[in-house]
User: What shape does this take?
Amino acid sequence: MKKLVRFSLAALALLLAAQIPNVSLAADKKLEVFSWWTSGGEAAALDALFQATKKADPGVEIINATVAGGGGSAARPVLQARLAGGNPPDSWQTHPGWELLGQYVPANYCEPINDIYQSEGWDKVVPKDLIDLLTKDGKTYAVLAGVHRGNNLWYNKKVLEKNGIKVGDKMTFAEFFAAAEKLKAAGVTPLAVGDAGSWATAQLFENTLLGTVGPQGWTDLFTGKMAWDHPKVKRAAEVYGKMLAYQNADHSALIWYQAVKAVIEGKCAFTSMGDWTYGEFAKAKMKDNEDFGWVSHPGTDGGFIIVADGFTLAKGAPHRQEAITWLKVCGSRDAQEAFNSLKGSIPSRTDIDKSKFGPYHNWSMNSFAKDKLLPSCVHGAAASAGFRQAFNDAVATFVVDKNADRLVKALAQAAKEAEMAK
Ligand code: BGC
Assistant: This one.
């Protein structure tokens, strides 16, 4: 009898769910979010979004689908296999620009979410430049939870103080090399790199490239107006090679956040990395301007390499209604304030309370407002997946052979194959 009652209740629930669209059964009230946020700072920030989602959608069970590795280089192939196999997560992390609009949208994996932008009033509070990076043919395909700045040089303040090194508002390559020499002489490893995933050293090259060609050169390279084997790109490779001479010996065994840990522990002095690094410092209870400091990567003052984190709505999302609530939370003011304080990025909304953020975030918000905004290649916004891969591969080869001519040749060839030149 008991069995029968249970059965008929389940049947009734199924019947109701079939008849009322967008109402999930309690047992089916799930949400699967895919990302590569697994480091200490990343996981803490992701959890802030999840907590806000649970508040907005009581009873929802969140499936936290992550693939470790940083930068998404290990996660994206797993995601791609799921998408191609018709088994999408409800929502996944993506970078705006090429990665979203050139990869996922043409393959028909995402639903446009313009109606959410309208109902939530996001058009009024998110800069148009950012919305444009998420929009194709008038359809917007993701909401940004935050905007990272990619071109930062971070340092352990106490280590520099101990060695009599002062960093000003900006830094030249000459100043960096002078500091590196001093540190080396004192037995401190000047530069921490964790390129177990080659994207991390590719990011060091990306930052050095911007520092050498400048914002206009950057735009010209990615729009085909400047050749990738231009002498300035070769110069960037040489400077990058010189920086590598100061990196930790175990760089290829470390993940990016282990390199940050070496800075936290004072084993290394500097690391050039996006501001997800801030999340690791915060998790280790390090304080802005006391325990750690930052400056634009040498030569890149005045430029802001955008590495923004968006979330999509999967076409055929298994839990569509929960996914919509999740996206609304990602774009909300409260959740963006909580998430970005932990993640290191700045909110994509401009109506947030700046006083809730510390010195680093205010510095970055200020840079975002006044500097040239440039898309990242390593993080998928500036060029196709094919070019990005070729870029990372060419850099990985350079780490071993230090051959600048070969590097620029490989980049020029990749640009040709990607039909980057106009
Ligand atoms: C993402 C960041 C992330 C970083 C390291 C970047 O591609 O945009 O959110 O923290 O990779 O994993």
Summary: Residues 36, 42, 70-72, 148, 276, 307, 309, 379 surround beta-D-glucopyranose (CB under 6 Å). The CA atoms of residues 241 and 400 lie 10 Å apart. The chain has 18 helices and twelve strands.
